[in-house]
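Whether sequence alone determines local backbone shape is best considered at the level of individual chains. The sequence in question and its structure tokens are set out directly beneath this paragraph.

***
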Amino acid sequence: MKNFITLEGSEGVGKSTQLRFLKEYCQKNGIDAVFTREPGGSEIAEKIRNIILDPSNGGMTDVCEAFLYAAARNQHLRDVVAPALADGKIVFCDRYVDSSYAYQGFGRKLGYDFVKNLNDLAIGQYIPQYTIFLDLSPEEAFARKGGADKADRLEQSGDEFFGRVYDGYRYAAEKNADRFIVIRPLGTKYETHEKIVEALKQKGVF
């Protein structure tokens, strides 16, 4: 979907910071853009987000989790993403369907095809034009972040889980190489921002 850009990566890779820099860049250059996130991004989707991430919901099944992500994604898409794209705006989203491939498909071992079939129903034709993947291993990312967030149910899933998540991202990047922009955020956050902007210029987004 033209002008639909998503940012992906493991916990702690700096997605939120890079989205903030992109927002500042768009404002400075008069680019009409919407910035949003998943899970959440709209009123109902945020309520689903709270259920998913609540540490007290430790008994949630993996399939239930996958369906909740897809449900939140569908609601957010209809409330925020689709209207903004219809208005000719660029939409930047912090996580989208590739997160489900990585976290539920690989991390929870539900399988890429299961998650894809489920999310095909949720998103229809709304596939990102480009996906910026901040490629950093879980070990590197959590070291940057200072460890897992105890208030986040997903972040308490353990090292093996996040190793599988990383494998899932790399698999998704290979399978969808036409839309993935892979960036290693090894320098400063400002250098990473410059890499992202340059890549989006080369793709004709900016």
